[in-house]
Write a structure and sequence with these properties.
single chain; about 90 residues; mainly alpha
């Protein structure tokens, strides 16, 4: 942690297991886990889309340019998460 902020290392395609663990923990800690499991439990569609987009940004922002390229066409958190495992 740097000044109280949680830091997730840029994922460059190596050590996917470590990156996956960090992302999952972060998503659960921020209550953004539902999109990762593709479960919109009791949510309106508009609410779900916002939650899914928030979670997708958590997954995409710590990706290196080369890995992010593989997630660019994905429309969901789950799709981006799976595509990062190149």
């Amino acid at each position: 942690m740097d000044g109280g902020k949680l830091m997730i290392e840029k994922f460059d395609g190596s050590d996917y297991g470590f990156w996956r663990m960090q992302i999952k923990d972060y998503l659960y800690g921020k209550d953004l886990w539902q999109p990762l499991e593709n479960k919109s439990i009791g949510m309106a569609e508009a609410e779900w889309k916002v939650l899914d987009r928030k979670a997708m940004s958590v997954i995409r922002l710590p990706l290196s340019r080369n890995v992010a390229f593989h997630t660019a066409k994905e429309k969901t958190t789950k799709g981006s998460y799976d595509a990062a495992a190149v």
